[in-house]
Amino acid sequence: MATQQRPFHLVVFGASGFTGQFVTEEVAREQMSPERSSRLPWAVAGRSREKLQRVLERAAMKLGRPTLSSEVGIIICDITNPASLDEMAKQATVVLNCVGPYRFYGEPVVKACVENGTSCIDICGEPQFLELMYWKYHEKAAEKGAYIIGSSGFDSIPADLGVIYTRNKMNGTLTAVESFLTIHSGPEGLCTHDGTWKSAVYGFGDQSNLKKLRNESNLKPVPIVGPKLKRRWPISYCRELNSYSIPFLGADVSVVKRTQRYLHENLQQSPVQYAAYVTVGGVTSVIKLMFAGLFFLFFVKFGIGRQLLIKFPWLFSFGYFSKQGPTQKQIDASSFTLTFFGQGYSQGFGPDKNKPNIRICTQVKGPEAGYVATPIAMVQAAITLLTDTSDLPKAAGRIGSQLCINLWDLRRGFIISKIRKMDKSKRSHD
Predict the structure, then answer these.
(1) Which residues of 39-73 are buried (b: 16+ CB within 10 A; e: fewer)?
(2) Tell me: the pLDDT tens digits for 331-343?
(3) N or C, which end of the chain is more exposed by having fewer CB within 10 Å?
């Protein structure tokens, strides 16, 4: 990546949005790290100069860095103006795209970045967008030398690297993993901005097109090693965690499966089956969830129903999603634990007529998922692209999920830095 010819190494597009302001703050914090010998030139981008300036002023005040606004460039561009997106892409080595829902606003950014040889990272949790972008732009991205990396936030770096970490810790062959996400909250409870809610509403309303896209891809099935991993019921009980659980409906399964395909087809590694769940607590929570789920599944089928779901997120989600998003107190008191239960074969044993004879449990823990862990993950993925260029793939596989980066180097670039930063800022429980 030709950083010398471009004025900005990083550009945060959508910096004035709800998540974008946290990503902007994280880039600024990264620049202040004592481990960084020199600062990277960077900019924020969006439609309104005034809003972008206010975001920088808030970040400067929060970080105690009054000169921040004068150190960061501002680029004015609009998702509806392709020429302005081209101008943004030409000025950047890596674009951090925070404008969603990506099914509506993501492709123009991908197109502009690919055509101008600019790498792009997003925090998309929408499988249809991720997979469609792969099929439409993979060859062009490889030709231009651009890395288009999707799902580089809480969706789905902890899950993807967690499976690889589990495999590396197992003294044998890992064949299947189930993950269970547990969200911890403080006395003021949980809340998520309705941008995530909108993505879920539109995603469920368009599931048929995702199935059609996958059928048209005609991908050769990845071989199953050992017994086939059975799906749990829509509501099941996890004895190990003493909690009921439901399937996790984000991008984790899609991303992990694509990573396992990449590792099998390109590095001849044994593929790992994967399923993802989220814990919901006890019986009372299950009953509450059932009612919310029934309302959601009914309304999402119809256009007017989707409009109601989007207009009143707080009502239909029982307060878990709102147009205002979480308060700072809610963010500070929240954290996550992602527990992985794996099974496989010890050294010397194989799947031929043998049942798995070894089990393993690992955990990934971190701060609040959406607005602390996600910005950290996104920014560290960008830093990896900028600093570990010699370790990145040189041929195909330059667009898609973070599977397209050399995963071991991403783990080094992201997790080690993440752990150090969390220890210093005390933003993690473990």
Answers:
(1) ebbbbbbbbeeebbeebbeebbeeeebeebbeebe
(2) 999 999 999 999 9
(3) C
Is the bond preceding 101 in cis, omega lying within 30 degrees of 0?
A: yes
Q: What six digits make up the tokens of 256?
A: 């992990």
**Tokens representing 100?**
């969603």
Asked if the model's pLDDT at residue 81 lies above 90, the reply is yes
Angstrom distances, CA of residue 152 to CA of 130, 199, 363? 11, 16, 19
Fold of 8-152+373-406: Rossmann fold (3.40.50)
Cα angle 228, 397, 128; round to 5: 65
Domain extents in the chain:
8-152+373-406, 157-369+413-421
Task: State which amino acid sits at residue 298.
Answer: F
CB atoms within 10 A of CB 202: 18
Strands of the sheet with 273-281, listed across from one edge: 236-238, 243-247, 273-281, 172-184, 335-346, 358-367
| CATH node for 157-369+413-421 | 3.30.360
pLDDT exceeding 90 applies to what percent of the chain?
60
Q: 392 falls in which pLDDT band (50, 70, 90)?
A: confident
